[in-house]
Amino acid sequence: MQIKVIGVGDAFSEQYNSSSFVIKAGEFRLMVDCCERLRKALREARERGGNEILGQIDSILLTHLHGDHVGGLEAYAFYKFFVDRRKPHLYAATPVLSELWEGRLKAPMRQLYNADFSQLNLMTLEDYFEIHPLEPDRQEQVGPLQVEIFPARHHIPTFAARFSYAGRKLAYSADTTFDPALLDFLAPADLIIHEVGPGVHTPYEKLISLPPTLTQKMRLIHYGDDFDKTTSRIKPLEEGELLEV
Asked: What's the CA angle centered on 44, arms 219 and 73, to 5 degrees?
């Protein structure tokens, strides 16, 4: 697996794009969460990176519905509909999918006129995406990836994920408080991407108290502009960075 980092910031960052990354397995690409101003963020990741893995992205996995994680989804869907003319695949836990249309997308996307305004088409989520519900405690096939999800502790339904491909594993905490049960879920991975931040997030002090067997294979994401990357004992991810798992 290759992982291309698109954004590393939290919801309030002025410096970073919001947290998102792309997993490449073979020729398959899966974007995890959909940051605001997505096409700009993707361009910046291409410009900052070395090896190029960002090609056609036709699959997205959402961890939850806060704006910094789905803020680019409307524009992404419209771009696919009007420009690419391809229906992308959308993966998320059932509680996340159940609120996505009514709670975030319906108002701006529920109807489309044709070019001369002679016909009005009423739209649904399924008109824009191929929908794939995910369930905890079950291994799901996402392209060539095997994916398992686990409930995180956050304000709204949020799910961590573990991705397996060719004998290697990547795990992502998503937004969460410090949670030993979630860490047990993440621990078998070869690389762990874990959020860090104040409030209903995971304090840095909690993460550095973990055993070296975990912290040595951990990278940080979702940090704020005031997070001191130079002194962090766990290496933060950088936008545009390419990782191999």
From this structure: 80
